[in-house]
Structures are given as structure tokens and as C-alpha cells.
Amino acid sequence: MSEILEKFYAVTKNSLYMVISKNESGQPFAEKIAQKKEGKIEISEKISGPMLAIAKNLQFYIPEAHSMLSSQTGEERRLEIVNTMWWRAGTSKIVALFLTKEDALVCFNQTDLMPCDARWLDKTKEVLDKIGEDHPTISICHYHELELLSA
Length: 151
Description:
Layout: E1 7-12, E2 15-20, E3 29-35, E4 46-48, E5 51-54, E6 57-61, E7 87-98, H1 101-108, H2 121-131, E8 138-140
Parallel strand pairs: 5-8
Antiparallel strand pairs: 1-2, 1-7, 2-3, 3-4, 5-6, 6-7
């Protein structure tokens, strides 16, 4: 079994986040560590949830397979199947993902950033490969309308 990725960085058009796969209570979180202008999430603020989906944005959610009205319980890791009522905090669209803060800062300091920016596609793919399909707290969304990288 390969080593579980514990930390990476996500750049959005306005912000830089450090993403940690597990806090003291076992949940993933993203901490905003830089911003270009004020947004809904302040610097040093953390957003979290039981699961994190890497989609067009970082989307935290509860992996619940049923609605609140159902007496059944179950787990669903695929973001596109989870009812949006179980979605929690999220970021704006991802520009790129990085393994190092230094690489993330180079990207973040550019002025012409685009969602899923082609200049950092290799770095983004590297992070997604390291996360993999079996990460315990992070899922990669492959649904065509939500996925970060189109097939």
C-alpha cells in the first residue's frame, strides 16, 4: 500500500490554502494562508468536514447516502451522489494543486490565473495521483460537471 498524502496546497484565483488530510478528530481541513483580496473566508480560518472532495473546488461534505427523512444510514464517498444538503464549506474554483508551498506561492503570485490553469497541470496531476482513489478522507470527483480535470 502506498503512503497516504497528508498535506498539499490549493491555489484559487484569490486564495492559497494548506490542506491537511486529518486533524485531531480525523477530519480533513483547509486553512487559508494567503489571499489577494478579502473573501468569505479570512486568513488563518479553517474549513473542514468529515470528507473532502477535490472537484472544480475544494468541497467538504458529509458522506451520507440518504436524506434526513430516511431511517436508513449509509456512506457515499462520491460527491455527485451525496445530496447537496450534506455539502458543507467549499472554496472558489481551483487554479492548481501543489505538493510544496514554494510551488504554490509561485502560482498564487501570478496575475492572470484561470480555473484549472494549464501552466500547472502537471503539478495538479501529481497531487491527484498522490491522493489516489482510496484515500480515507479525500475523494477525487470524476463526475463530468464537477471534476477538476476533464477526461
